[in-house]
Design a protein that fits this description.
- The chain has 134 residues and is α+β, with helices and mostly antiparallel strands.
- The chain has a domain of 91 residues: Double Stranded RNA Binding Domain (2-Layer Sandwich).
- It has three helices and four strands.
- It has a four-stranded mixed beta sheet with strand order 1-2-3-4.
- The protein is globular, with a radius of gyration of 15 Å.
């Protein structure tokens, strides 16, 4: 899976941002394997750097699954980390739904791990989250 990062003029393309994006994308979407050929990440700041307000950071993610049209989601948060992780969680659900019910249980458990506790296993505490609760 190739990861492409496109920032706006208010977000600098630092090594830290690159690492943060790669960790979020590979950590949340890695289990889809080669089915996803490319992920484009578009972090942006809805307000200029001189102003700050709640939920002014936005992240749009577009995944290109093999044999399907590109799928995109977006999430806004007060920090880039919130926007990035929120869009990654939404994309997991969208891709899982697109791929089909065979992978649905893996996607739910993956989403629980992303949202709550990365050390929890599906057997220890199954997840009943749905996209509308994100």
């Amino acid at each position: 899976m190739n990861i492409q990062i496109n920032t706006d003029n208010h977000i600098g393309g630092s090594d830290e941002l690159t690492r943060q994006v790669e960790d979020a994308v590979e950590g949340s979407l890695g289990w889809f394997g080669e089915w996803i050929t490319r992920v484009e990440v578009h972090p942006s700041d809805e307000s200029s750097s001189s102003k700050s307000r709640d939920n002014d950071k936005r992240c749009v993610m577009e995944a290109r699954p093999a044999g399907h049209q590109p799928l995109s989601v977006s999430h806004q948060g007060s920090t880039m980390d919130q926007a990035l992780n929120g869009s990654a969680k939404k994309l997991v659900w969208l891709l899982d739904d697109t791929k089909g019910s065979a992978s649905r249980s893996q996607g739910k458990h993956l989403l629980c791990r992303l949202m709550d506790n990365p050390t929890r296993t599906p057997e220890e505490q199954p997840c009943d989250r749905s996209p509308r609760n994100i």
